[in-house]
Design a protein that fits this description.
By secondary structure, this protein is an alpha+beta fold. About 35% of the residues lie in helices and about 15% in strands. The protein has one domain (about 5-60, about 110-190): Muramoyl-pentapeptide Carboxypeptidase, domain 2 (2-Layer Sandwich), CATH 3.30.1380.10. It has helices at about 15, 35-45, 65-80, 85-95, 135-140, 150-165, 180-185; strands at about 5, 10-15, 20-25, 35, 55-60, 115-120, 125, 165-170, 175, 190.
């Protein structure tokens, strides 16, 4: 069992730490908040990228209410996509991609320690996804079915973020974290340093 010892580090606006980062949140909000150390690590990772590249942030800290909305959206998506599946199987599939929105072991996004991002260059997102694959296939961090150039794009991002000390959730190539429960498990830490921040 990994415990949480929140170090009370504050949330910060990542644009104030790293102005060259692009923010395009799925929620429509224009400010991305992360724990201060995470924001600094993203900025460090940005400096590890090849010239001309930066990151575009699609999600950072979320409230429990936002996390619940995402859970419900995925539930609806998978129910529609797989109409023959029983609800229990749909829920099991959803839980692979959306962590809990309540309780002590909530999504890393609710702690300010997790971030969803992609590469950005010349005013647009760098291709990292194939329309020929399913959502689940595309989401996998290591996906040999992808064309070589897309695998290389992912490697650029992986190397930059890993070097900065963040860890990747293998089911979602875009999801990275530091300080939360997932990070603590991957890094074999006794406790996570970030817990739930409700608002």
């Amino acid at each position: 069992m990994i415990y949480i010892k929140d170090n009370q580090e504050p949330l910060v606006n990542i644009k104030k730490i790293c102005p060259s980062i692009v923010v395009m949140l799925h929620t429509g909000e224009k400010t991305a908040y992360l724990r201060r150390s995470v924001a600094k690590k993203i900025c460090q990772a940005k400096s590890n990228l090849p010239k001309g590249y930066t990151f575009v942030i699609n999600d950072a800290w979320r409230s429990p209410k936002t996390q619940q909305k995402i859970y419900n959206r995925f539930l609806k998506y998978f129910t529609k996509k797989y109409p023959s599946w029983p609800k229990s199987k749909v829920v099991k599939e959803v839980k692979k991609y959306v962590a809990p929105f309540e309780g002590k072991r909530v999504s890393g996004h609710l702690t300010g320690g997790a971030i969803d991002l992609r590469l950005y260059k010349n005013g647009r997102r760098v291709p990292m996804w194939s329309s020929k694959l399913s959502y689940q296939e595309n989401a996998q961090s290591i996906q040999p079915k992808l064309p070589k150039h897309l695998q290389e794009n992912r490697k650029i991002m992986y190397d930059a973020l890993s070097k900065a000390g963040l860890v990747n959730y293998w089911r979602e190539f875009w999801h990275w974290s530091y300080g939360d429960l997932f990070w603590a498990r991957i890094k074999k830490k006794k406790f996570a340093i970030y817990g739930l921040i409700e608002q």
